[in-house]
Amino acid sequence: MLSLLFDGASLLSVAAQNLAVKTNALWWMTGTPNIGIEIPVIENQTFQLFYGINPWKSDVKSTTHWCLQPEFRYWLRQRWKGWFVGIHAMGGEFNVENKRLPLGIWKGLRDNRYSGWYVGGGISAGYQWKLSRHWNLEAAIGFGYNYVEYDQYKCLKCGELERSSSLNYVGPTKLALNIQYLF
């Protein structure tokens, strides 16, 4: 019985050393605080869960949203070092107005407010560099699909509902430059 307790305790300590906490610097650049955790599944596979929220509003511009993004990863060499490929899901809600998005996405954002939700998923790939015993840097990109339902309001703050609609988005679904701490 005592042996079983010590074996269980050593398994917990090994698992605790294989936990990563991370944050996406690119999300912070958009004013979106975020945090992610990544845990091992088996030898070269990990599971990551990321959450970001942007609750900030102003009188001129607003981009409030939250996003949850789970991801399963397969590491080509070893966990938390080198190349990985993954499959991710995502979902969240948004309320956006008076913005210009890159690549001409949602051109009406300058004159309208959009409020809604989305769900989707995709594939991803990335690379992780070991900086020190506990610190890593990671770059990742993803491509996939999102189903989006939204309400469009004509005026920014005060407008009446102009229409409700949905769209199918295919394109980039993930861009990350993560700073990671390994326990």
From TrEMBL:
It comes from Phocaeicola barnesiae. It comes from the Bacteria. InterPro entries: Autotransporte_beta_dom_sf (IPR036709), DUF3575 (IPR021958). Pfam families: DUF3575. This is DUF3575 domain-containing protein.
